[in-house]
Amino acid sequence: MTSSIHIAVIALGCLGFASPTFAEGEHALDLSALPEAGSIAPAEGLAAWDSIHAVLSHPRCLNCHVGDDNVPLWGTVAAPDRIHGMAINAGDSRIGAEGLSCNACHQTSTRPNAVPHAPPHTGMDWRLAPVAFQWTDRTSAEICAQLRDPDRNGGRDAARLIDHILHDAELIGFITWSFDPGADRDPAPGNMQAHLEDMAIWTAAGMPCPEP
Ligand code: HEC
Ligand code: HEC
Predict the structure, then answer these.
(1) 160 inside domain
(2) Which member of 61, 143, 175, 194 has the lowest number of beta carbons within 10 Å of its beta carbon?
C-alpha cells in the first residue's frame, strides 16, 4: 500500500491532474498542488521547515514524542511540561505492555473526541512514538536533522515521510487528531492539508535545515 501511494503521488505530480484527492470526507487531502523533487529553492524549503517545526513543537505532538524515561506528557500551551497523571509509564514497549497498557483507557476509535479530560482516542492504537523520534528538549535544527536521517526517522526517505501523513489521514491517526483534537484541547497550528504541503515543499527542496 505504501508503495502504491508513493507511485500515485509521483504520477499525480507529473500529470498535473486538477483535483486528485486522498482519503474521504472531512479528512480528504488535495494532492494536486504538491511540488516535484528539485523544484523548490532552499530558502523556500527553510521557510516551510519553520512552519513544520511550529507543528512538531506543539504540545499535541510533543506529548507523545518524548524521551527514554517513557513518561507521556499532558502538556498544554500554557503548561507544556506537565507529565501524565496516574503514574503512567509506557515502558520500553512504548504502549505500556510492561504495566498498564495505554488502551486500557485510550480506546482505538475514529469517533470524535467530545468529552474534556477523557482519555483521547484515534483510529490507531494509542502509544508513544519510538525513542528515536524524541522531539522534547530538542532545538529546531536538531529535530530537522533527525527527521531527514533515515536511521532516526524509521527508515523513511522523502516520499515515505509524505506517505506517513497520507496513511495517518486514512486511519484518522495521531497527526490527524492533533490538528482536530476536539474536547477543548488546543489544536496543533494550521491543518493537515497545510502540513502536507509544507512537508512536500521541504522535501522537494532537499530537506534543508537551520544552522545548529
Ligand atoms: C488509567 C487511564 C489511562 C491510561 C492507562 C493511560 N492514559 Fe493517557 N490519558 C488519560 C487521560 C484521562 C487523559 C486526559 C487527561 C486530560 O486531558 O486532562 C490522557 C491523556 C494522555 C495524553 C495527552 C494527550 C493530549 O495531547 O492532550 C497522552 C500523550 C497520553 N495520555 C499518553 C498515554 C500513553 C502513551 C499511555 C500508555 C503508556 C497512556 N496514556 C495510558 C488516561 C490514561
Ligand atoms: C498518540 C501519540 C502520538 C502523537 C499525539 C503524535 N505522534 Fe507522531 N508518532 C507516534 C508513533 C507511535 C509513531 C511511530 C509510528 C510510525 O513510525 O509509523 C510516530 C511517528 C511519527 C513520525 C515519523 C517518524 C519521525 O521521524 O518522527 C512523524 C513525522 C510524526 N510522528 C509526526 C507527528 C506530528 C507532526 C504530530 C503532531 C501533529 C504527531 N506525530 C503526534 C505517536 C504520536
Answers:
(1) yes
(2) 194
Give me the residues paired with residue 73 across strands.
Answer: 83
Alpha-carbon distance 134 to 208, whole Å? 20
Question: Cα-atom radius of gyration of the chain, to the nearest Å?
Answer: 17
With respect to residue 132, please indicate whether it lies within any of the assigned structural domains: yes
Indicate the residue type of 115. Answer: V
Provide the residue range defining the domain that includes 127: 41-204
**Residue 18 Cα to ligand 2 middle (Å):** 30
Domain total for the chain?
1
Whether the pLDDT of residue 180 is over 80: the answer is yes
Q: Examine residue 88 and state whether it is found in any structural domain, yes or no.
A: yes
Q: For ligand 1, which residues put their CB under 6 angstroms from it?
A: 59-60, 63-64, 72-74, 84, 86, 88, 90, 96, 100, 102, 104-106, 117, 119-120, 126-128, 185
- When the pLDDT of each residue in the chain is averaged and rounded to a whole number, the result is 91
State the distance between the two ends of the chain, measured CA to CA, in whole angstroms. 36
- Tell me which of 56, 65, 106, 193 to substitute to probe ligand 2's pocket, judged by most ligand atoms within 8 Å of the beta carbon: 65
**Locus of grid cell 513518561:** 71
Is 15 part of any domain? no
pLDDT tens, 31-42?
998 999 999 999
